[in-house]
Write a structure and sequence with these properties.
The structure is a homodimer. Chain A has seven helices and three strands, in the order H-H-H-E-H-H-E-E-H-H. Chain A is mostly helical. Chains A and B meet through helix 1, helix 3, helix 6 and helix 7 of A and helix 1, helix 3, helix 6 and helix 7 of B. Chain A binds a DNA duplex through helix 3, helix 4 and helix 5.
Chain lengths: ~140, ~140
DNA sequence: TATTGTTATACTCTATAACTATA
DNA sequence: TATAGTTATAGAGTATAACAATA
């Protein structure tokens, strides 16, 4: 079997284990402000870069029907807004409101401010990990 | 601001981004056999190593009341079994059934067999990542 | 008194299927 | 015909609060 390809498998297994273990451990989630999925939406939505509903469903790896209710709830809280797409009248694009942009900034700040699980790595190891993850996530989600 | 501590924050942010992006993309989940949370339970439960319900709730970072229904469903499918704890009569320990053990083995195999997102790293980078993640996950979850 | 697990309740997330309005 | 988004429905995950049994 895997002679040479086993490291990718092992790394994948460790990453899966990591994100299973960390599920729901975001500051905004713990404070009850946002659900994990809502965090994802605010994370994907960059200010001034509207995203079609369909694209959001893809990035969530879920059925399109879920996005309707999800966006309904975020819109009811004034965090996002639906806009008609210029090119295709079937499409609705999603954008952050000023309030949503502020919460997104707090979310990112909260993520960066909670590096607890990574404290056990040396600074050099942390830099290595950043480099590897950046390559891993390159040209993804945008 | 962060002079020196920023790499941990950056790495943390990238890991969060990664697991948000990969949520639900496990073979067993895609095939509709298990939910992400059920995967976590089977992952945590090693054969022959019973785990108290309370400990399961901790590892899921959720309220203990959820574990009741979660375990009910897994037990109804014959994957896990509740056993009284030898020491404390309040405690119920959870163990895999033979059927659960088999599904767990398939789950782990499926995870290892799906390293697609990691193919973009060189073999050397993959080994580096494995080393870092192993240090990251060391003495956790057991 | 504190802890383990349960129940009741309410809300969110998720998939499937059927529908509409566009393309 | 195909696609974007919605609605209806049902099942699963989640938190809070109250409870029984045990420590």
């Amino acid at each position: 079997m895997n002679a040479g390809g086993s490291d990718a498998g092992r790394a994948w297994q460790l990453l899966v284990r990591f994100f299973l273990a960390q599920r729901g451990r975001l500051a905004a989630v713990e404070q009850g402000e946002l659900s994990p999925v809502q965090c994802h939406v605010l994370h994907v939505l960059e200010p001034g870069r509207p995203v079609p509903m369909r694209q959001l469903a893809d990035s969530l790896a879920c059925d399109a029907s879920n996005v309707t209710g999800l966006v309904d709830r975020l819109e009811a809280r004034g965090l996002v807004a639906r806009r008609p797409s210029p090119g295709d009248r079937r499409v609705k694009e999603l954008d952050l409101t000023p309030s949503g942009s502020r919460l997104r900034a707090e979310l990112l700040k909260g993520i960066a401010a909670r590096p607890n699980p990574l404290a056990r790595l040396t600074p050099r190891e942390q830099r290595l990990l950043v480099r590897l993850l950046e390559r891993l996530l390159d040209d993804r989600d945008r």
